[in-house]
Amino acid sequence: MKKILFIRRDNIGDLICTTPAIYAVRQKYPDAKIGILVNSYNADAIINNPDIDEIYVYEKAKHVPEKNKLSVWWSNLKVLMRIRKEQYDVAIGCGSYSPRLVRYTYMTGAAVRIGYLSKNVDKSKSYNMPICEPEKPLHEVEMVFNLLSPLDINNTPSPLRIFPLSDETQKVKNFLNISDIKEGKPLITFHISSRRPENRWPIDKFIELARLIISRYDANILLLWSPGSEKNPYHPGDDEKAELIIKSVPQIIPYRTNHLRELIAVLSFANLVVCLDGGAMHIAAALGKPIVTIWGSTNPDRWRPWGVKHIILQDENKKAENISIEAVFNAVEKLLA
């Protein structure tokens, strides 16, 4: 194989769950050119990955509301033309079947196009090397890894891979050096944000959990959240919720991450991460951090933290708000031990 292209159109966690497959291809074909097509929202998750030779970034119109759709489409077409000019031998459409993913894979011009085939789709309108979606539920890492079987790769997926940028890491180190950090005490990171309402944990519970951890362990707690106002219709954030926590728990240390690369760097310093199901959880897993995840409606068999110590807290109604403070604190204690 000379040139292999991965296509990952989805969110941050989906892309990070693709990194074991990329690593496996690099190990099997060390001299191949490996490219990946990602969107501007998740690109920072693989920007420093040594397994990848070239990153192609396209935009989703909903991520750039300041641009008109025609401009976005034209820009994306130019990205696809760059890919076609490169003449990739193989393109892998990563993720469950979708007509748009098939279309992107076809437009790369690759000779071999691999991806999952839905039972209800005409084969002639899909990939020229389709794979049937597995009947039993698999983790997303395993789902992507299965797509490598036509490349004669059938081993066990590695841990997730992510690589903080050195300048961002230094920036966080400088911040922590001037912050009121208690030496010799664990650094516990809270990430309070989730896109899905049913996956969110009430802010008053985060406040009480922080107070309990500080009183019992005198630990350092670093607060992270999705930046921006909750009133922003395109990119709603949690600035207001973070401000409430900061006012209620003066000992907490806030760090506003404006870019994904900053979030990656900050999480690399944590001893333990308390978060909701989402991209931050997968970043923490890729960094090898122990994780307490307050879970909502997502299927943990498909999306649990891969390859690290973790505790998932999910109630029968699949609503994160129902998880008690005591349950989260007990999980924190177990992982700290």
TrEMBL record:
Record InterPro entries: Glyco_trans_9 (IPR002201), LPS_LOS_Heptosyltrfase (IPR051199)
Record's protein name: Glycosyl transferase family 9
Organism: Dissulfurispira thermophila
Key words, A-Z: Glycosyltransferase, Transferase
Record flagged with keyword DNA damage: no
GO CC field: cytosol
Gene Ontology biological process terms from the UniProt entry: lipopolysaccharide core region biosynthetic process
Top-level division of the source organism's lineage: Bacteria
Keyword Ion transport (UniProt): no
MF terms in GO: ADP-heptose-lipopolysaccharide heptosyltransferase activity
Organismal lineage: Bacteria, Pseudomonadati, Nitrospirota, Thermodesulfovibrionia, Thermodesulfovibrionales
